[in-house]
Amino acid sequence: MRSSFTPLSPRFLPIDLTHTMLENIIEYTFKNKELLNQAITHSSCFNEKKDVRQSENEKLEYLGDAILNSVITILLYKKFKDKDEGFLSNARSCLVKRETLTEVAKAIDLPRHMSYGNGDQNVPEDSKVLSNMVEALIGAIYLDGGLRKATKVIKNLFTPYFSLERLTEKNPKNLLQEYSQKRWSILPKYKFTRKTKDGFTVIVYIGKDLKAKGMGKSKKEAEQHAARLLLQGLTETDGA
Q: Residue 48, Cβ neighbours under 10 Å: how many?
């Protein structure tokens, strides 16, 4: 009788081996393993009261966000030399938005390699958690290996998303505006509601009855998210 064998999830393996598996996927080996550990440690590992480790993780996110935006800007400029500033700006927004970062996180199996606390065994699906973790990982790579290494990793991770079809995806705010003007001859209105450590919250209105709430790392991203959600709801209603 042939015995069956099911490989262990990375979360049940020694942390050094888990780190090595992730390093193999991203094709970068850390000299300072503590930086990698800080980057991929889930918030459930921290005490309820914010401690130094959580602060370091958040600083890695901040740094990674800045590095990612700069590197993506340069990569786009070099790849699409015949495109204007409007295209490049929209393409960058498309590549660094939360949804794309979440796709990258899942592509490198990041949720399964994260460190957890409090006995948490659930792989997170929250796009905010996953996108922040990608930024923290990029920040850690920059501190450990410098800009050249960080650029190489970013290029490897994001190249699959550089297709013209994806980058020319029309801004959801423009699409919603066109839809609203054509159907009701009015413009959508956006209202900023609050800013937290998780980002910005914006509500988009069309008239008095139609609205949707969006969140994002910036007001612009939150507005786009809100517009996308409202447009999705309107088109689904039309198709019903």
A: 5
Q: Where are the domains of the chain?
A: 15-168, 172-239
Amino acid 50: pLDDT: 54
Fold equal for 15-168 and 172-239: no
The catalytic position among 56, 61, 135, 221 is: 135
User: Active-site residue among 61, 65, 221, 223?
Assistant: 65
Please report the pLDDT score of residue 41 as a whole number: 86
Cα-Cα-Cα-Cα torsion 55, 143, 127, 41, nearest 10 degrees, comes to: -60
Question: Tell me: domain 15-168, CATH 3.90.1150.180, correct?
Answer: no
- What residues contact residue 26 under an 8 Å CB cut-off, 6+ apart? 108, 137, 141, 153, 156, 157
CB atoms within 10 A of CB 45: 16
Q: Give residue-wise pLDDT tens across range 96-133.
A: 988 899 999 999 999 888 876 554 545 556 788 899 99
Looking at the chain, the number of H-run helices and the number of E-run strands are 11, 3
Q: Which residues of the chain have pLDDT under 50?
A: 1-8, 48-49, 119, 121
What fold is seen in the domain 172-239? Double Stranded RNA Binding Domain (3.30.160)
pLDDT at 119: 47
- Of the chain, the end-to-end C-alpha distance in Å amounts to 54
**Counting every residue, how long is the chain?**
240
84 is catalytic: no
Q: Is 135 considered catalytic here?
A: yes
How many percent of the chain have pLDDT more than 90? 55
**DSSP character for 83?**
S
